[in-house]
Write a structure and sequence with these properties.
about 240 residues, alpha/beta, 9 helices
Length: about 240
């Protein structure tokens, strides 16, 4: 299928507000899980490289799923893994850490990268290297107040709290200024998608796409703020 521009991928992630992280023992379960998550209204899903065969499953998912869902690869720790993921069809890359070579590989291929960072120094470094969004990981121990405090001096950097995000605190993270949330769940338990209750995020502070935080010379399209849609969250974060 026709590829979306990096800006459009980031826009869909931030408008949807959720990146569902699928980490399963068997790659055979990744596609059914992604389909179930899509049916629940989530529009961005990442397959973790900790699942053996994740890239083969990603290629199958790209063929089966429509344009309404963005498919990425997570736990991308090295540049070669980034390039392999892009060849398999990844529309975005994420990592729990900041590896400049991974960011560079994504930029060279025109694929958004969401590296992990924790301190203000790491977050600014990730942004300066060309990150499309910055994953704040782990967010659970510090909570929404930390995101709010970061947004004070760093309002131009879109943050994606991940690790410790739950149905109970998701709204507070959004209200604190998160651009989106990374939500990992126990997808290996069928009840995680078939029996879990849904939660709607409050509108909070509308965050425009990432290009609205860029200086004019780095934008690939005009900046126009857009409201975030309210996306349901299935299951509990882990």
């Amino acid at each position: 299928r026709e590829s979306m521009s990096p800006d459009d991928v980031v826009k869909q992630i931030t408008q949807g507000g959720i990146v569902a992280i699928i980490r399963l023992p068997s790659a055979d379960d990744l596609l059914p899980a992604a389909e179930a998550i899509r049916d629940g209204g989530v529009t961005a899903v990442e397959f973790s490289l900790t699942t053996p065969g994740a890239l083969q499953a990603l290629a199958r998912a790209r063929l089966r799923l429509g344009r309404e869902i963005r498919l990425g690869v997570g736990t991308v720790l090295a540049a070669e893994a980034a390039r392999d993921s892009i060849r398999a069809g990844a529309e975005f890359l994420t990592a729990p850490n900041l590896n400049p070579e991974v960011v560079r590989a994504g930029r060279e291929a025109g694929v958004p990268v969401i590296p992990g960072a924790f301190t203000p120094t790491e977050i600014v470094q990730a942004w300066d290297l060309g990150a499309s969004l910055v994953k704040v990981f782990p967010a659970g121990p510090v909570g929404p107040r930390y995101i709010k405090d970061l947004r004070g001096p760093l309002p131009h950097i879109p943050l994606v709290p991940t690790g410790g995000v739950s149905l109970e605190n998701a709204g507070a993270f959004i209200l604190a200024g998160a651009a989106a949330l990374g939500v990992g769940a126990s997808w290996s338990r069928r009840t995680s998608w078939s029996g879990a209750r849904s939660a709607r995020l409050p509108p909070g502070r509308a965050n425009s796409p990432r290009r609205c935080g860029l200086p004019a010379h780095r934008r690939s399209a005009p900046c126009s703020p857009s409201s975030r849609s309210k996306a349901p969250i299935r299951g509990n974060d882990q």
